[in-house]
Amino acid sequence: MCLAVPLKVRKKEGDMAEVGLKGLRQQVSVALTPEVKEGDWVLVHAGFAIQRLEENDALETLSLLEELNEAGN
Amino acid sequence: MRPGTDAAQLVARVEKLARRLPAGKTVHIMEVCGTHTHAIGKSGLRQLLPGNIRLISGPGCPVCVTHDREIAAYLDLAERDNVVIATFGDLLRVPGVRGSLAEARSRGAAVKVVYSPLEALQLAEQYWDREIVFLAVGFETTAPTVGMTVKKAKEKGLGNFSVLSMHKLVPPVLEALLLDDQVRLDGFILPGHVCTITGVVPFQFLPRRFEKGGVITGFEPCDILQAVAMLLAQIIEGRPAVEIQYRPGVRPEGNPLARQVMQEVFVPQEARWRGLGQIAASGLALREQFRAYDAAFRFSLREPAGPVLEKKPGCSCGDILKGIRIPPQCPLFKTACTPANPAGPCMVSSEGTCAAYYRYEQYRGG
Ligand code: SF4
Q: Is the pLDDT of residue A66 over 70?
């Protein structure tokens, strides 16, 4: 239940942002991470960005996740 | 896999460290978080580790620790006219003594599954003539998102939105476990995303008061192996500490703004945990200035008089959540209790220890 996923901020408007990976897009609140900018990576939990990530770290986590998913399928 | 962190190498490192432990010593490490329990089950890590290292599952699945009294309270709300329950899907099938939300829904109760508390807020705007009650479960990871949603509801002046707060806090339950004589633990794999919010400070009591280490850990099998190695090194060198393995997701200071929101909206209060009983300041209640959004206040929910049946007869979830029994030791496991027909919450949530054992660990002898 405490799962959070790294996603990239595509557009920011006020305290909402469009985040997504590849074709998938999602609206989340950035009210808990007001410092995020377009292009940043964030950890998303329950419709909120709860942490801004350093891009390389997020990418690394992501590619690992993808590898694991592939291995699991 | 990244070079140098590859699972086989990490296992070899853990084995090497394990050989340095005193003869006859078994190290008990609790993985607190349900997401870790799930990842450990799925990757078969428990069986990869040397025999003198045991991973014990802890009380870190919010749905599993939700108390029967809390379940009774929200089922009562679900049955009221005009109330629409908005809930994370995890809670839907949790069996209370009087049934589950899913059963209430099939009898006509209005229950909507949401992914975010903000969606519940949208429901309140959409159905302005109904009472929308959001069932707020979750640890420090989730509480700030609910706090922010309550603040938004107040800003918008919504009169038909409220929250039933069943939030729980991780540090107090770890303290309670360490004070329990039945529980024997040498260190903790701490929940990564809880610490994204809290940072390291609320866990410093582990080394300072109890001389136990804790490693804040990410959710991949390699992260968990690395955390085990870090804990073993602490134990061997006799320097218990709180360390961060999960670098990308956790800063030492956590997310101060998220904590500020949590403190503005909630106040710590005593909470009941399944299997663990009442623990001081381990839950969150809405503060007085947010009373209008507090479902317990709004609907005058009272503690039911007299004893409440605490669990289904025979379900050992309580002992499982404390890590003093494993699922195969429950008489109902795999017989009267399966994921399709769960007798206790530890079997319902995919993060529950019983569900993880059922899916992944059954052929390996636990
Ligand atoms: S196997 Fe089922 S009945 Fe037994 S402890 Fe787990 S959830 Fe409870």
A: no
